[in-house]
Amino acid sequence: MSVSFNKRDPIYLQVIQHLKRLIVSGKLRPGEEMPSRRQLANDFKINPNTVQRAYSEMEEQRLIYTEPNRPSHITEDPAVLNQLKNEWLNKAMATFVSAIEPLDISLDELVPLLEEKLQKRK
Amino acid sequence: MIELRDVQKSYGRKKVLDGITFTANKGDITCLVGVNGVGKTTILNAIMNLTPIKKGDILIDGEKMTTELYNKVAFIPDVAIMLPGMTVGETMDFMKDYYDTWNGKRAKDIVRFFRLNTTDKLSELSKGNQAKVNLLMGLALDVDYVLMDEPFSGIDIFTREQITEVFSSRLVEDRGVLITTHEIVDIEHLIDKVVLLDNGRIYKEFNAEEMRETEGKSVVDVMREVYNG
Amino acid sequence: MKKSLNALLKLTSFELDRLSKFLFTLMGLTLVINLAGYIYTPMRHMNKINQFMTENSATAEEALQTFGRFSFYNALNSFWIVGPIVIGITGMLFYSVFIWYREWFGKNTFAYRLLMLPVSRMTLFFSKFIVIFIGIFTLISIQMVSLFVGYPIVSAIISDTYASGLSLMEAIHAHPLFLFLFPLQPSYFMVIITAGAVMLLVLFTIILIERSFSVRGIFIGIGYAALSLAIVLFPLFLPNLLKNNYLFYSSELLIIELILMTVVGICSLFVSRYLINNKITV
Q: Strand, helix or coil at B60?
């Protein structure tokens, strides 16, 4: 796992973003065990305290859960997972919409283009 | 916690340390950054009672430094400090002989991690491998604090990467790490706290992650402001 | 207590190991030069006699009258014996300074490691002190052994006619140098040893002063040396100053000197301890 972080955003937020991506894409499955803080810090070459902070934040958002003296796990709660997917989609849509904002283009024109792109992805 | 309170020191008329006050916490990586001057190394030497200070206090968990505390605080200078005729293995034996907190198992891990050869003579090692031997001596001690002076200076890029890896590895565990450097870029992601020094004074002391969060500035951004401003 | 003693022993044996090459060189030098002397000096004497006898067609009687009898003392009182002793003393004096400065000025700064050992720093001081003394006593013993080996060699080369019959002990006693080096007179030897130890303590203290205050330290160090010397020599000049030559019996003077030297030695220990704990710079 190699991630490049930018230097101006808080690293813990970048870590969370990266892990969320792994969750929505299914690379981290519901209930799956999370790597230890030390392990992740070592993989990402960042400070373990930063990973700790990212994990705490994710616990608060109920994306992961930790029982005492056990490794953390990805949540199995479908509501939380759905919410995460929605959030991800909303954010992507917002980015997309704001990116095409300068263009004068109608929904009817957009739909086939989108379909084509999605086809290609598959 | 390593605590410095109003530490002052002069060489002749020149003030090297002019009222240095800061703390380095256990479990944190604290980085003393300075563009030039001898102040950084002097601070580490002063903490280790390897050079006297004129005024001020230096406390390790509230205590003054004593020789017994060398079992609790390790210092990794950026010069070779073992006899050149010794081998890496003899260096380890020497450390084991004198330090109660020498952890032989971890020492072996470190030798493997750095791919050192215990039968190599220190005088025949490259600069990078000599630095690794220094790290070995410091990190294999079960100490609470590790001080490192310029761990990246004059070292090839691969060794540099290996040394960087040390900071996020279990070789550091929950110790307090205090390092000095003038090249921050390699380790920006690794440090908790930054103490910016110039001309024997502290310009700014801040938490790197908080700085990114509240002001959207990288450590280098802050340095640029401070040293160019 | 047990731990610090253990550390002292370990450090001393470590220092001894570092001294060994130099010491073995000095020992070897002593033995080789001595041996050359044991052979060369009596042979030269015999050659002179033989030459004298052939050139002047003289008898052994006449040769004896010209050259006298050859004793072991003649062999001792030569460059071949005195030289290595001077080399040994100079060498150990040099090493007493070197034993400290090498930790700073070597290719590697071993001073870092030594000063960061979790043992009392005076342990370093004592280990170096002890090692110098081990060196000195080793050289003295090797010189003694050499004399025992040399005596029969000289006796074998000088034919009985020209030998004085002076015994080994008589020859040694006759030479003033060995009065200093060997425990021939216990009280005298003790003064010499004390003086040597105190000199070494003062020297170590001066080195630590220099290591603590650098250039300024050199002047303070010279001052400290002068003061120490003045204190020790003071009683010797006192009779002159008071114009009373009968002030002390020599046995009294001996005791006064011993006390003064001990005082200077103990002061040096305290100064050294303060410096090495608080003032020294790596």
A: strand
Instruction: Evaluate if pTM is beyond 0.80.
Output: yes
| Residue-wise pLDDT tens digits, C151-174 | 999 999 988 888 888 889 999 998
Whether residues C113 and B84 touch (CB distance < 8 A) is answered with: no
What value of ipTM does the predicted structure carry? 0.93
Q: Are the Cβ atoms of C10 and B99 closer than 8 angstroms?
A: no
pLDDT, tens digit (0-9, with 9 covering 90-100), for B101-143: 999 999 999 999 999 999 999 999 998 999 999 999 999 999 9
In chain B, where the domains are located: 2-228
B68 Cα to chain A: minimum distance (Å): 29
Q: Which of B200, B225, B191 is nearest to B15 (CA)?
A: B200
Residue C32 in 3-state DSSP? helix
| Token pair in block for residue B209 | 């992650």
Half-sphere exposure of A86 (CA within 13 A, CB side): 6
d(CA B31, CA B179): 5
Q: How long a stretch of residues is chain B?
A: 229
What is the CB neighbour count within 10 angstroms for residue C124? 21
* CA-wise closest residue to B142 among B73, B58, B52: B73
**Dihedral over alpha carbons C143, C149, C151, C153 (to 10 degrees):** -130
Is 3.30.70.420 the CATH classification of the domain at B2-228? no
What would the two tokens of residue B137 be? 């001596």
Amino acid of residue C114 = L
